[in-house]
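Sanity check

After download, print the first record. It should look like this:
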Amino acid sequence: MSAFRYIALLLVVTYTNLIQAQSQAPGYFTDFSTIPASNNTFSFGQHYAVLNLDLIVGLVAPLANTTEGAAFIDSTVKWQNAVHAQKPPPLSIYTRIYSLNSRHVEVAGGFAKVFGFQPGTIDDPNTQLYPPFVPIPDYDVDLKKIRYYAGTANELELILSSQKIDTVVLSGIRTSGVILSTTYRLFDLNYNVYVITNNSIETPPTGPLVDKAIKTGVIPKLPANVITVEQALAALERSGPAIY
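Expected structure tokens:
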């Protein structure tokens, strides 16, 4: 084999291995924002809510030992701690995926395979919030869901309208599921939508490609906002006091 053919073959094998590795890695693209870094004046106002979507053991735990998953968890915890430190804290809403009973009466069609695991009931360990994510007892809101959209068959929209919320800030897993679906729906309902890119992750396969495409292309085209966690933390300090 000539040196040229050997190098060409080596490049093909390397590229193939790289593509296969990427297809099995979580998607976690964080180097993007629709708001220029020089904009240090935007805020979430006073009527905003923080949505922490599907951060349950069954979805987060499989990614926790990856570099991307660990960074996602750290960033999301940092954000939630900052939110809870506000005086007063804004409305924070957590969603959890679980079935009404062990027969999964509300799960049908393609959704029987969507989550990568069979959703348990309210007390199942897989349906609990991943341990670092801790709501404020009797203050933050915990909602059940069983579809992509965060407000499916629960009181999300009623709560947002009752509290006169006009802006929502999204974190969660996964980007192509609950994040994208909820962004579309709440954008349609005239909310100002911010997605924190460091706090949104895509599960394998093809995670990196899907995550980047949604964050840099699909969401901005709506147009809704994609911001970094650093921008979100700075905007949080310029916001409020929250009305809740």
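If your output differs, re-run the checksum step. Summary of this record's structure: The chain is about 35% helix and 15% strand.
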